[in-house]
Specification:
Layout lengths: L7 H4 L10 H9 L14 H16 L5 H5 L10 H9 L3 H13 L6 H13 L3 H14 L3 H12 L4 H12 L3 H12 L7 H8 L4 H10 L9 H13 L3 H13 L7 H13 L3 H13 L6 H13 L3 H13 L6 H14 L2 H13 L6 H13 L3 H13 L6 H13 L3 H13 L6 H13 L3 H13 L6 H13 L3 H13 L6 H13 L3 H13 L6 H13 L3 H13 L6 H13 L3 H13 L6 H13 L3 H13 L6 H13 L3 H13 L6 H13 L3 H17 L3
Helix pairs in contact: 3-5, 5-6, 6-7, 7-8, 7-9, 8-10, 10-11, 10-12, 12-14, 14-15, 14-16, 15-16, 16-17, 16-18, 17-18, 18-19, 18-20, 19-20, 20-21, 20-22, 22-23, 22-24, 23-24, 24-25, 24-26, 25-26, 26-27, 26-28, 28-29, 28-30, 29-30, 30-31, 30-32, 32-33, 32-34, 33-34, 34-35, 34-36, 35-36, 36-37, ...
C-alpha cells in the first residue's frame, strides 16, 4: 500500500525519497533478514547496585506511594538507569511503567532505547494507547528512534502490534513518506502492517496517491478491505470523479471479493446527489436495497436534499416517510433539507409542521435550520414570522451569520422597509460581521426601487471602501432599481460605467433594460439593445425574447411578435409556454381565435405542455367569441389536469353558459367561483339577481344585492 514500486517517481511525488526499487522488493520476498539480538551496554558496579536496590524497594514496598519509595534514590538516579531497571522489572510490567512515569515526571530526557523498550512493555501489557503515546514521543525527540524499536524488538516484545502502532504514529504526525518507507523496510523483516493501519494512511493521502497505492499495493501481499475501498470512493467523489468511483464499486466485489457496505453505497449516492445526478443516485439506492443493505440517515438525507433542491418536495417527503417506516430516526439535517424544500415552494404550513416535528423528535434546531426558516419566510414576505424565528434563534444562544442577516435584510428591502433593513445592517457591523456583496447589492436594489439613487451610490462607495469588489450582480441590481424607478438615462449610464470598470454586461443586464424600454413603449431602443447584445456575442435567452414578445403584443404589433417567434425557432432558441401565451393572449383580445388556435397548435407541435395560463386564455377568448363547444372542451381538459379558472375566465364562461341557456351549469360555476373567494363582475351578479327574482327567491335576491354592494361598489371606492 505504501510505496509505489518501479515508476514511483512519475506517479507519487511522496515516493521520490524512498530508497528501495522493485528489484529489492523481489529479494525481500525470497530472503528475509532476522531481527537483531539485543545487547545493551553493561552497568558499572555502582550503577548495578543502585538499580538492584531501587527495583527491590519497588517490589517490596509496592503499596506505598512511589515518590516515597524512590526518594532515597532520586539524587543518584539517571535516565540511563531505566535500561537496567527494566531488566529487573520485566516480569512486573505495572512497576516498570510506574518507574517510567516517575522518571518522566522529573522532566528527565528519556533515552530512545528506553522509550522503545517501554513501548514494547506497554504493548505486552495491552496498554496500546500508552504505547502509541510513547512511540509518538520517541519519533518526535529522537532521529533514529525506528532503529531502536527494531533493535529492542526481539528481546523485549516479539509482538508485531508495536510496528502497527509505530506506523500509526508516523501517520498521525503527518510523515506520510516516512510511513511508506517504514512499511517496506519492515517487509524485509517479514512484518506486514495491518490493513486497518494502512487505511489510516489512505485517509490522509490525496486521491491520485490513493489510486496509485491501490494499483501497486497487492505486490506486498496485503489486501484491501471494505474500509479501504470506502476511503478511495469517498476521495474520488470529493473531486467529482464519479465514474471512476462507480468503477471501484464494481471492482471491489467482482474482482477482489470485497462486499460493499452501506457506507460504500451511501458515499457514492451522496457524490451523485451533490453533482445533481438524481437518476444515477436512485439506481444505486435501488441496487443497495436489492442487496439487503438498509439505507441510513445519511443516505436518505443526500437524496432528500437533492430532491428538495430540484423542487420535487413531494418525492422528498415520500422518502422521508419511508425512512420513518423503516425505523430510521431522521437527524436535524434531514428536517432542515425538507424545510428548505418547502420554503422554496412557499408552503408555510409544511414548514411549521416539520419544524414542530423536528423539535418533538428531540432535535435541537441549529443556526442553519433557523437561517433556512428565516430565509423562507422572508422570501414569502412573511417578515413577522421571519423576525420571530430570528428572536428565537438568539434566545437559544445561536449566532446568526452573514447569510441570516442578508435574508432578513432582503425581506425588509422587498417590503420597502429600508429603515429596518439598515438597522440590521448596522447590527451586523456592531456584531463584528462584515456585510458581503450580496448584502450591499440587496440594500442598493431596495434604495433604487424607492428612487433613492444617490443613497444607493453612496452605499456602493461604502462597499468599495470596505475592500469589497463590485460585481455584475451589484450593477445589475442598481440598473434594475433605476429601471423600475423610470430613470432610464441613469440606468444606461450605469451600464456604460460597468463596462468602463472592466465588467461585461450580461444577459440579465440587457434584458432588464430591454424590458424597461418595452414597458415605456420604446421598441426601437429595445431592438437596438438586442442588436448590441448579439454583436457582443451574447446569446439572448427565452426571458429576453419573452420581454420583446410582450412589448410587441402590448403595442398591438402582433405581426412583429409572430416574426419574433419564427426567428427564435429558426435560431434553435426554444420558446416556453409564456412566449406562446403572450401571443395567444393578444390574438384573443383582438378576437382572432383562428390565430390563437394556430399558435396553440404550434405550441403543442413543439412538445410544450400548456399551463394554467394557456387554458384560461383559450377559455376566455372562445367565450368572448361565443364558441361554446371549444370553451367547454378546454375547460374540461383544464380541470382534468388539475388547473383552476381565473376570475376573468369564470365571468366569461358563466356569461356564455347563461346566453346558451345552460343555467344549471352557470349556477354551479357561480357557486364555485364564490367558494374560491373570487368576486364576480356586476353583469354576472345581475344575471343571478334576475334569475332568483323571477323564481321569487326573495332571500337569495337580498343576499346577492348585499354582496354586490359590498364587493363591487364598496371595494371600488
Amino acid at each position: 500500500m505504501f510505496l509505489c514500486l518501479g515508476n514511483a517517481k512519475k506517479r507519487l511525488p511522496l515516493f521520490s525519497s524512498f530508497p528501495f526499487s522493485s528489484s529489492s522488493i523481489d529479494r525481500i520476498t525470497t530472503k528475509l533478514r532476522p531481527f537483531p539480538d539485543y545487547s545493551p551496554r553493561k552497568p558499572t558496579i555502582n550503577d548495578a547496585d543502585l538499580v538492584r536496590d531501587l527495583t527491590t524497594a519497588l517490589k517490596q514496598r509496592r503499596s506505598e506511594p512511589l515518590r516515597r519509595i524512590l526518594a532515597p534514590f532520586a539524587q543518584r538516579f539517571r535516565p540511563d538507569h531505566l535500561l537496567w531497571a527494566f531488566s529487573y522489572l520485566r516480569s512486573d510490567l505495572p512497576l516498570a511503567l510506574s518507574l517510567l512515569h516517575w522518571c518522566r515526571s522529573r522532566r528527565h530526557p528519556i533515552p530512545a532505547e528506553a522509550l522503545a523498550i517501554a513501548s514494547h512493555l506497554s504493548v505486552a501489557s495491552r496498554n496500546l494507547e500508552f504505547a502509541l503515546q510513547l512511540l509518538r514521543e520517541g519519533l518526535q525527540s529522537h532521529s533514529r528512534f525506528v532503529e531502536q524499536v527494531i533493535y529492542t524488538y526481539k528481546h523485549w516484545s516479539s509482538n508485531p502490534c508495536v510496528f502497527d502502532l509505530l506506523f500509526r504514529a508516523f501517520v498521525d504526525a503527518g510523515k506520510l513518506s516516512e510511513s511508506r518507507s517504514l512499511f517496506f523496510h519492515l517487509l524485509t523483516y517479514g512484518i506486514t502492517i495491518s490493513t486497518d493501519s494502512c487505511n489510516a494512511l489512505l485517509s490522509r493521502l490525496p486521491v491520485d496517491d490513493i489510486q496509485a497505492a491501490f494499483t501497486e499495493f497487492p505486490e506486498s501481499g496485503l489486501r484491501w478491505n471494505v474500509v479501504s475501498y470506502n476511503i478511495l470512493i469517498h476521495s474520488l467523489c470529493q473531486v467529482r470523479k464519479l465514474e471512476e468511483a462507480h468503477g471501484f464499486l464494481v471492482k471491489m466485489e467482482e474482482k477482489d471479493g470485497v462486499l460493499p457496505d452501506v457506507i460504500t453505497y451511501s458515499t457514492l449516492i451522496d457524490g451523485y446527489c451533490k453533482s445533481g445526478e438524481l437518476q444515477e443516485a436512485l439506481k444505486l439506492f435501488s441496487e443497495m436495497s436489492s442487496k439487503g443493505l438498509n439505507p441510513n440517515s445519511f443516505t436518505y438525507n443526500s437524496l432528500i436534499t437533492l430532491l428538495c433542491h430540484d423542487g420535487n418536495v413531494v418525492e422528498a417527503e415520500r422518502l422521508f416517510m419511508q425512512m420513518l417506516s423503516y425505523g430510521i430516526a431522521p437527524d436535524a439535517a434531514v428536517y432542515t433539507s425538507l424545510i428548505n424544500g418547502y420554503s422554496k415552494k412557499g408552503n408555510l404550513f409544511a414548514m411549521h409542521r416539520l419544524f414542530t416535528e423536528m423539535k418533538t423528535a428531540g432535535h435541537a434546531p441549529d443556526a442553519v435550520t433557523y437561517t433556512v426558516l428565516i430565509s423562507g419566510f422572508a422570501q414569502m414576505g412573511k417578515m413577522l414570522e421571519a423576525n420571530e424565528m430570528f428572536v428565537e434563534m438568539l434566545s437559544k444562544g445561536l449566532t446568526p451569520d452573514e447569510v441570516t442577516y442578508s435574508a432578513l435584510i432582503a425581506g425588509y428591502c422587498k417590503e420597502g422597509k429600508m429603515e429596518k433593513a439598515f438597522r440590521l445592517h448596522n447590527e451586523m457591523l456592531h456584531g463584528g460581521l462584515l456585510p458581503n456583496v450580496v448584502t450591499y447589492t440587496t440594500l442598493c436594489d431596495g434604495l433604487c426601487k424607492q428612487g433613492q439613487v444617490e443613497a444607493a451610490n453612496e452605499l456602493l462607495h461604502e462597499m468599495c471602501g470596505k475592500g469589497l469588489v463590485l460585481n455584475v450582480c451589484t450593477f445589475n441590481s442598481l440598473i434594475n432599481g433605476l429601471c423600475k424607478a423610470g430613470n432610464m438615462d441613469q440606468a444606461v449610464k450605469i451600464m456604460r460605467d460597468m463596462e468602463a470598470a472592466g465588467l461585461a454586461p450580461d444577459i440579465y443586464t440587457y434584458t432588464t433594460l430591454m424590458d424597461a424600454y418595452c414597458k415605456s413603449h420604446d421598441m426601437d431602443q429595445a431592438r437596438l439593445l438586442l442588436k448590441e447584445m448579439l454583436d457582443k456575442g451574447l446569446q439572448p435567452n427565452v426571458v429576453t425574447f419573452n420581454v420583446l414578445m410582450n412589448g410587441f403584443c402590448v403595442l398591438g404589433m402582433l405581426e412583429d411578435g409572430k416574426m419574433l417567434l419564427k426567428w427564435m425557432l429558426e435560431k434553435n432558441i426554444r420558446p416556453n409556454a409564456t412566449t406562446y401565451n403572450t401571443l395567444m393572449k393578444h390574438y384573443s383580445i383582438d378576437k382572432n381565435m383562428k390565430a390563437t388556435s394556430e399558435t396553440y397548435k404550434g405550441m403543442l407541435a413543439l412538445g410544450l405542455m400548456p399551463d394554467e395560463n394557456t387554458y384560461n386564455i383559450l377559455i376566455t377568448g372562445h367565450c368572448k367569441s361565443r364558441n361554446m363547444k371549444e370553451a367547454c372542451y378546454y375547460y374540461s381538459e383544464m380541470v382534468s389536469k388539475g388547473f383552476n379558472l381565473r376570475k376573468s375566465s369564470y365571468n366569461a364562461l358563466i356569461k356564455l353558459l347563461f346566453r346558451k341557456k345552460k343555467l344549471q351549469e352557470a349556477t354551479r360555476l357561480f357557486e364555485e367561483m364564490r367558494a374560491m373567494k373570487f368576486v364576480a363582475d356586476k353583469e354576472v351578479y345581475s344575471i343571478f339577481i334576475d334569475v332568483n327574482y323571477n323564481e321569487k327567491n326573495v332571500q337569495a335576491v337580498l343576499e346577492l344585492c348585499d354582496e354586490v354592494v359590498e364587493k363591487c361598489y364598496v371595494e371600488e371606492k
